[in-house]
Amino acid sequence: xxxxxxxxxxxxxxxxxxxxxxxxxxxxxxxxxxxxxxxxxxxxxxxxxxxxxxxxxxxxxxxxxxxxxxxxxxxxxxxxxxxxxxxxxxxxxxxxxxxxxxxxxxxxxxxxxxxxxxxxxxxxxxxxxxxxxxxxxxxxxxxxxxxxxxxxxxxxxxxxxxxxxxxxxxxxxxxxxxxxxxxxxxxxxxxxxxxxxxxxxxxxxxxxxxxxxxxxxxxxxxxxxxxxxxxxxxxxxxxxxxxxxx
Amino acid sequence: xxxxxxxxxxxxxxxxxxxxxxxxxxxxxxxxxxxxxxxxxxxxxxxxxxxxxxxxxxxxxxxxxxxxxxxxxxxxxxxxxxxxxxxxxxxxxxxxxxxxxxxxxxxxxxxxxxxxxxxxxxxxxxxxxxxxxxxxxxxxxxxxxxxxxxxxxxxxxxxxxxxxxxxxxxxxxxxxxxxxxxxxxxxxxxxxxxxxxxxxxxxxxxxxxxxxxxxxxxxxxxxxxxxxxxxxxxxxxxxxxxxxxxxxxxxxxxxxxxxxxxxxxxxxxxxxxxxxxxxxxxxxxxxxxxxxxxxxxxxxxxxxxxxxxxxxxxxxxxxxxxxxxxxxxxxxxxxxxxxxxxxxxxxxxxxxxxxxxxxxxxxxxxxxxxxxxxxxxxxxxxxxxxxxxxxxxxxxxxxxxxxxxxxxxxxxxxxxxxxxxxxxxxxxxxxxxxxxxxxxxxxxxxxxxxxxxxxxxxxxxxxxxxxxxxxxxxxxxxxxxxxxxxxxxxxxxxxxxxxxxxxxxxxxxxxxxxx
Lengths: 246, 515
Ligand code: SF4
Ligand code: SF4
Prior knowledge:
The structure holds 2 protein chains of 2 kinds.
Chain A: H1 3-32, H2 48-61, H3 63-68, H4 70-90, H5 100-129, H6 131-136, H7 139-160, H8 166-177, H9 188-203, H10 211-217, H11 219-222, H12 235-238
Chain B: H1 33-38, H2 49-63, H3 65-73, H4 85-90, H5 97-112, H6 114-118, H7 120-123, H8 130-139, H9 148-152, H10 159-173, H11 178-189, H12 198-216, E1 231-234, H13 245-259, E2 263-265, H14 282-299, E3 303-306, H15 310-324, E4 338-339, H16 340-349, E5 365-368, H17 371-376, H18 385-397, H19 428-434, H20 436-449, E6 453-456, H21 459-468, E7 479-481, H22 482-489, H23 509-514
Parallel strand pairs in B: 1-2, 1-3, 3-4, 5-6, 6-7
The structure holds iron/sulfur cluster (2 copies).
Residues 83-84, 86, 97, 100, 143-149, 159-160, 163, 415 of chain B line the site of one iron/sulfur cluster.
């Protein structure tokens, strides 16, 4: 057991706890907060299944974003889709044996790194070059892009530039999951990559990355348009009913 | 004509470069003590207002999921930045929806998030200061709560929700807006926004009956406070006196007449508008809505029909059941409440209205989708009915109709510029500038198809356009009501001893009278 192993093991337990606890708390908060009025943005579906379809389109093809701006859509979608494939590819470091579809994803996941970097680059370019987007950007918005780019670049380098000891990496993470710690490989690129990932996990629940759970709770998108058919009253509003004369 | 520069009309809305602070001076008059207090708000800026504002913000985000989720979810992608008519018309960056939200979000972050507490500069968090409050007062009164931004945001973030919350916080510390708050007071005291008392209302309606009789030779009734009527009509008080609104009201009367319906207006609820929504106050919105319930119960009606008004229809369609329901004492065979366009459309579908389209041949029409109808309500039973039904009515009443370009109709419609409680003379500059994209759409069909008139189904739109059209080289009478078109085209069925002036008695009048 090396000192580095202990540090990284503890870091990842901590990061995981913050991510799950933090996002879990946010989800609990959103779920608990009432939406006293029906405010779907119309034309809105009039059935539950229609809402499910609307939501599915929002999170897979970014329908509203497509309507608003083709460049943001292109870069944003490229980044998210690539990230998704890359995440699937990373499953192999956490499973033994590896599911067969995870193996199938591997080659796609490798090259998706370029799409991810290109998407992020495009988004960042807009943030610097378009005066409107520049105006609304805070330092944290730039830092977030920098962090994601650094994660992508360090990850891609391990595939395309200087290979890392993936057997050792896998052993380390499986060990973490089984509470049977294994020595962590010490290549600098790898350590950089996973440090940044841990950082991202820790920042997640305190940042705008909350858009990920948030989108599912957005009343303008997730409400059924049926206010005439169904009365919709929040608990705090029900209390007002007591003072009603008739 | 104006002491500000009226923007130049382009072919279509062009995204302008930012000019910071150019609209910071635009502020509505502040509500006086008496008007604040009658709504249950402090009369003037309270001591310790910073803390009260922060607490109110906390209370609201606990009560409204929309607020909590919207404050957390924005990624500053910029997709909404060019979607607001006030930004396009003024070039002021704080009129970009996300920047407007950020005026509120910066305070939320400072007091309610870890990042904002410990690293305010990093995430753009700010203390609640006088300067912030002044910005709020300016820019949350440059949002008509039209929700155009919410259509285009990938998370459906609706700046209107944030404007409403900000206005409620401002009311809670004693800085209310005069126009809205004074009007809500009038509704509570007298029954409508205009402060028309019952006798004046009765006079007006009698006058209308005479006017229609003189014009057509047919006795069309405009009944007030008739107990036992089937239908309660609730319509914006603008319909009772001003052009072109009143022409719409005459249209509803004629439609009811042809349907043989028994209907009435109520002096207790002689107003469909509900400015409680504009100031974000659930309680006030609820109290205004309850008048309608009381009127329906007192008069013993079976149905409630709403006249042409955008935000009134939003409150009616989306909120009335919630705020003042359940309406189990009404006839469940009809939508509760129903829009006058749904009512008229239904009759047209059933062939119960005879419309002579040629009566409107002197006009070439286009239709302005009012923002609250388009993006916050529905008509009929299918999504998008609110776009189809008014157009179907116009086409049934007129021969010449052309839609404005796609970028500014239906759910992408541009607000008239006067909604959300901005329809006041003290805000003329923002109203004129905010109308820019709509005027560009209108210009296009005027040039391409020779459009002469624009029809709308919202009292605020109609008032706003009547005032604003001249700034852009159009005339104020180019805005018309949809039911005004119906009114002109409708062929009335005379009663037994009437109709001498009608040279052509209507065919099919018998089954119309039966319905
Ligand atoms: S609601 Fe309408 S007026 Fe307000 S920011 Fe959005 S687009 Fe602009
Ligand atoms: S479109 Fe939505 S997420 Fe993007 S900047 Fe505007 S409000 Fe934020």
